Amino acid sequence: MQPIILHIPHSSISIPNYNGYVDNVELIDNEVELLTDWYTHELFYSENDITVKADFSRIFCDVERFADDEQELMARYGMGVLYEKTDSGKFLRAITPDLRGEILSKYYWPHHNRLENAVEDQLQHYGKSLIVDCHSFSDIPFQRDLNQQSNRPHINIGTDSFHTPKHLVDFTVDFFERHKLTVGINWPYSGTMVPLKYYQKDSRVNSIMIEVNRKLYLTNGSNQKSEDFSLVKKLLSVYFFQRIKMLSR
After folding, report:
1. Angstrom distances, CA of residue 33 to CA of 16, 25, 61, 84, 91
2. Exposed, middle or buried: residue 114 (CB in 10 Å: 0-12, 13-18, 19+)?
3. Three state DSSP letters for the chain
4. Which of 32, 83, 141, 222 is deepest in the core (most CB within 10 A)?
5. Residue 146, Cβ neighbours under 10 Å: how many?
6. pLDDT tens, 152-191?
């Protein structure tokens, strides 16, 4: 059975260097705690599939943002590919052209190259590729979230009009609803990861974003695992992945 590619961009808490950051460890640590997709590398882990994980925090370099701030909507809030402000709008880091070039060349582009290579390998061996973009999200909107609607669903599915076929969306919604979970489609977040080499060009590359509401597996808004963590993990990494691979055969 063909493996799927698990893209895990936001689970790390590592900051490789603190160049440009404010001299305020508490501010930085609080932002890491707030914005990290805690334990998604465990929730979505599958030994039979291919994992492409960013090994650095999103507040250091967010690989899900466009490298060019002119293309990135969140850059206007100081939260482009290299975060300069916190979610609340406080100054976080000064980005010089040299620092920007260094981080992109050493961290951003190597990550994207790994993802691109994984897709290329799948296309060569199977003639098609499926990416699952793996995230979690807070039950309470962040201050900078574009969608401030409350009563967020248990699961959010992010799609792309070119790379996410309707049957994949329908299957995913049905799967989670059968397990008594509410599902949003592109709510509260939209889109899904596709390497730029294939984006809007190669329909053999399918992608869907799966985001889990953190209240399902963390305790009381903290970053501590709840007693339901193992149940959510099993639902994703065993049942969902097995069925989605059967669908794509």
Report:
1. 16, 12, 15, 17, 17
2. middle
3. CCCCEEEECCCCCCCCCCCCECCCHHHHHHHHHHHCCCCHHHHCCCCCCEEEECCCCCCCCCCCCCCCCCCCHHHHHCECCCECECCCCCECECCCHHHHHHHHHHHHHHHHHHHHHHHHHHHHHHCCEEEEEEEEECCCCCCCCCCCCCCCCCEEEECCCCCCCHHHHHHHHHHHHHCCCCEEECCCCCCCCCCCCCCCCCCCEEEEEEEEEHHHCECCCCCCECCCHHHHHHHHHHHHHHHHHHHCC
4. 83
5. 12
6. 999 999 999 999 999 999 999 999 999 999 999 999 999 9
Q: How many residues does the chain have?
A: 249
